[in-house]
Structures are given as C-alpha cells and as structure tokens.
C-alpha cells in the first residue's frame, strides 16, 4: 500500500454576485478514532477502516446570512468489472423516506466522508460531490439542483483491500451529465439543472 499522504484542491464559484471557494482534502484513514467510526458502531476496528480515504471539504463564501445556504449532493459509482457502473445517491438512511437528495446542508456547510465499502468484487468506488445553492425566494425553484462546484474522488480495491486513493479532481459538466442521467429518475420531484461554470475574473 502506498504511504499515507494528503491531496488537496481548491475550487472557485460565484453565487449571488459573491465569490466563493471549496477547499478539498483527501487523505488515508488511520483508524476508528481519527475518523469517528466510534459514533457509528463500536464493532469497527482500525484494521477495518485503515487505508480507505477520508475526505473533508470546507466552504468559504463572501456572502452571508441566507445567501450562504448550500447543500451537498454526493453520487457514488460502484464498478464491479461487469462493463457498467452502478450509481446511487449517498444519503443517511433516516432521510431517505423524505426524498431529499442532499447529504449535508446548512450555512456554508462543511462536507465529510470516510467510506469503507468493500463488497465482494468491487474494483472502484468513485464519488461525484457537488455544492448546490438552496433556493428560498421562489417555491418553483425549491426543487432545482444546480451545482456551483464539484469534484471527484474515491479509491480502487485489490484482493478485498483498498489499493489506490483517487485524488480529488474538479468535476466537469460531462461528469455532472453522466451522474444526473443515472440518478434523476429516483428523484422525479426534483429537477437536475445544468452545472454552473463561474466567470472568474
């Protein structure tokens, strides 16, 4: 296994006339205490999580108050080497019945994830993670999902263990179009709009 290291990127976006950025850090998991798995299940051990990625994304935004309300949408691809990927929206189980696709949302919300999916035959786990504004002023806009910035990250598996960490990379319009084609039907009450690309000057 390659030595532990951190990979970082910074993404810029514009919203309500203000500049913002997302700083993403992906590193290897060192154990249950450092990654907080003790809050999930006391049966997790260091050997069960060590080597998988840990991702943190922090939002910096010049706007304040209600202008700075955002949601994080995360779509996961599982590749089992069968010729096609399986896509799913990553969301806590207790929120699935409400058909809300966002896994985190709030005021300049940070995003955290420490996956350890290792199903038999899994070759690659890849996440497409997008920051989206939350509309408050127009009820017709409530269920529109319009990414302002996004990135991909994940890991590959070999012999049932994490092998390589996929360093974070900016998500493209093609990435967004790929994942929304595969998950939009699960959230038919929501509109998956085109990804916004800021005019950064």
Question: Judging from the principal axes of the Cα atoms, what is the shape?
Answer: globular
* Distance N to C terminus: 41 Å
Helix fraction?
under 10%
Q: What string, H for helix and E for strand, traces the elements in order?
A: EEHHEEEEEEEEEHE
- The overall pLDDT average reads 91
Give the count of helical stretches: 3
The total count of strands amounts to 12
- The helix/strand class is mainly beta
Radius of gyration using CA atoms only: 17 Å
Please indicate the percent range of residues in DSSP E strands (runs of 2 or more): 35-45%
Biggest pleated-sheet summary: 6 strands, antiparallel
- The stretches of 5 or more residues where confidence is low (pLDDT under 50) are none
Number of domains: 1
Question: How would you sum up this structure in a few lines?
Answer:
The protein is mainly beta.
Write a structural description.
The protein has helices spanning 32-35, 46-49, 173-183, and strands at residues 7-15, 18-28, 53-61, 69-79, 85-89, 104-107, 111-113, 124-133, 144-145, 149-158, 161-170, 191-192. It has one domain (7-192). The chain is globular. The longest helix is centred in the C-terminal third of the chain and has 11 residues, at 173-183. It has three helices and twelve strands. The chain is mainly beta and 201 residues long. Strand 10 and strand 11 (161-170) form a beta hairpin.
């Amino acid at each position: 296994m390659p030595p532990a290291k951190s990979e970082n990127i910074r993404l810029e976006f514009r919203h309500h006339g203000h500049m913002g950025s997302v700083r993403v850090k992906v590193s290897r998991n060192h154990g249950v205490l450092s990654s907080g798995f003790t809050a999930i299940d006391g049966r997790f051990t260091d050997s069960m999580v060590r080597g998988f990625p840990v991702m943190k994304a922090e939002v910096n935004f010049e706007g304040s108050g209600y202008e700075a309300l955002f949601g994080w949408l995360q779509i996961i691809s599982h590749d089992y080497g069968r010729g096609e990927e399986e896509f799913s929206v990553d969301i806590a189980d207790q929120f699935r019945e409400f058909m809300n696709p966002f896994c985190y949302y709030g005021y300049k919300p940070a995003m955290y994830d420490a996956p350890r999916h290792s199903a038999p035959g899994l070759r690659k786990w890849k996440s497409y993670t997008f920051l989206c504004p939350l509309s408050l002023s127009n009820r017709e806009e409530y269920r529109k999902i319009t990414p302002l910035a996004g990135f991909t990250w994940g890991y590959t598996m070999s012999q049932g263990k994490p092998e390589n960490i996929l360093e974070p990379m900016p998500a493209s319009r093609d990435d967004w179009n790929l994942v929304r084609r595969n998950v939009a039907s699960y959230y038919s009450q929501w509109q998956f709009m085109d990804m916004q690309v800021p005019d950064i000057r």
